[in-house]
């Protein structure tokens, strides 16, 4: 957790710095955490079954977040989980399990990359970004592409749409969420006539936090109330 504009690496909150110093003071750099990321207990099948048991019809898996590490055998980069951490194609395992369980699959891809100093072109993309995003759509057949950057790269999104339109023989459809109408945390305070999405976790964040307790998480009643409001 941090503060900042989100486009560059945010400044950590003082509480985060204190926790890191007390628990992880021996870790000097972000990538030094990677050997601890073993995924020894990861079971893609049980994850997919958990999603279907909630009644959800689709799932979105993180393909690459702001740290620049790709969770699949991404082209044009050495920062993949096949070369570090679990040394596994985690994304491929999960998407295959989702297909077996009848789930529509999507992928989240951050255009921000705090590990790279490569300049973006006028459309906000690099050649590597273009290759990786198209790889998710072409090879992994992502049905929903979550691009994490507002006012995003229109040229790249046009390429994705052209790829989809030109593949009508395979009946491929892709929904592109460019985050124009995605709300974080709370629903909008007025009626919106066009499609939109609310994004929030059951807890106070989007990831697992071992410090959270039951009182920090939405109850079953609160989840139903929130879904009803949406």
Which key phrases capture this entry?
single chain; globular; two-stranded antiparallel ribbon; 8 strands; 6 helices; 29% helix; four-stranded parallel β-sheet; 230 residues; alpha/beta
The coarse overall form would be: globular
Largest sheet: 4 strands, parallel
- Could you tell me the mean pLDDT? 86
Distance, first to last CA? 26 Å
User: Rounded to an integer, what's the Rg over CA atoms?
Assistant: 19 Å
Structural class: alpha/beta
Spatial strand sequence of the major β-sheet: 3-4-5-6
What is the overall number of helices? 6
**Number of E strands:** 8
SSE topology string? EEHHEHEHEHEEEH
Low-confidence region ranges: none
Classify the helix fraction into a percent range.
25-40%
The portion of residues forming beta strands comes to 5-15%
Can you walk through the features of this model?
The protein has helices at 14-24, 44-53, 90-100, 127-138, 154-165, 220-229; strands at residues 2-3, 11-12, 58-64, 104-109, 144-147, 175-177, 182-184, 197-199. It has 230 residues and is of the alpha/beta class. Strand 4, helix 4 and strand 5 (144-147) form a beta-alpha-beta unit. The mean pLDDT is 86.
